[in-house]
Write a structure and sequence with these properties.
alpha/beta
Length: 504
Amino acid sequence: MSVTVFNPRIDDAAVETRVTAPAVTALEASNSVQASTAQTPVSVNGNNTPKKVFVTTQGCQMNVYDSGKMLDVLGDSHGMEVTHNIDEADVLLMNTCSIREKAQEKVFSELGRWRKLKEKRPDLVIGVGGCVASQEGDNIQKRAPYVDMVFGPQTLHRLPELYDQSHEQRSISPKNRIGTVDVSFPSIEKFDFLPEPRVEGYKAFVSIMEGCSKYCSFCVVPYTRGEELSRPLDDVLAEIDSLAAQGVREINLLGQNVNGYRGEKDDGSICRFAELLHYVSHVDGVERIRYTTSHPLEFTDDIIDAYAKLPELVSHLHLPVQSGSNAILAAMKRNHTIDVYINQINKLKAIRPDIHLSSDFIIGFPGETDEDFQDTLNLAKELNFDHSYSFIYSKRPGTPAAELPDDVSFATKKARLAEFQQVIIDSTLAKTHEMVGTTTRVLVEQMANRHPDCLIGTADNTRTVMFPFDVDKMDELLGKIVSVRVTDFVSPHMVKGELVEVLA
């Protein structure tokens, strides 16, 4: 197969957004992600039946968000619809993640299964996007010539043109096709070519920046998503305003280093993250604000002060620390000490005593000693994290940490991870039990699937809250912020209670 780098066709511009499901590894496009109404439907067998797209998503919340955008652009340009049944799909898209170990091989393993589907249905179009696509580029089509499209996180808006190029070659054998590959980093232009936001539900994610410039020694993000680029303030606010007009009550601001946002204002000055929070809080209809993922270096005093002034900011913060050892933090090139992290958290707790804290941890980083690990355990106990995302370190090709000597056995790393996670589990259970007898603020989202006499929603601290309701008043409660008195522990991440009042 020969390969050509795609040259985008410049058409009309639009501003984007939409709601997606929570981040889950190997997540299929969620029920909340729906393809948008088409302008130019693509027919099947000569009729007007829309073609169907199946998306599988690996990795972080940004990837889940991007998968929703893939469906949006193909829905808007070609009238395609989402399907959760791979056997009825006309287009298969894999949104990949390169964070975990052997990420590339897992991609090719899944592609091997998709190859069998294409052998049965030669017109099936297969596309690979995300961070592995960005790393591998045309190597994907060299190893898997039946793949029609390869695109990076910054070029997903070009999917309609990539699809057209692939579709036009459907009568040519795979080995003779011209591969469509676009893994470039075209600044922030993708947001100018995404459809207007269309959402279902009361929560939405809004990407405010792309890439990262921190260059932590273990991380591939700067190499797969590029350096930090912030969207202009007016563009972000226009998207949020559109979402709020469609009934969205909770906005979750997204970025690999979200609190490092520095968006340009219309007068050319720069809006920092804390100021953006104030702007978002003034959008009519927005009642709750979350953001992910932050870096301790950018968690500045003006952001902490915002928690004193903005009730819309939920009492939950996800602030990755990665390790409790200063020696390991230095090896990771995090550029801060653990004292800096603790100091900022204590400042925040002084303003919001009820703040719930979560974080990311890498266990078994090269050179991690028993003392280093004990420092991490001590940090988890001292700050009493609500929950965490914790993993055993795995080498990522091309990162500085991949060259570090590592004399810690896998068995030791595994044992350390289990010990660490038990500390977090105990903390999670304790905090959920402590909710019993208290009153919490909840965004009401839907009827409980297994309990049709109850509605469920999300508390500030991310717990699911279930409460009985009067069927005649369901429409009055959905999408509202309510106060619920918690009466029962249900599970580590769910409680049950009684409705007290509607707040907003």
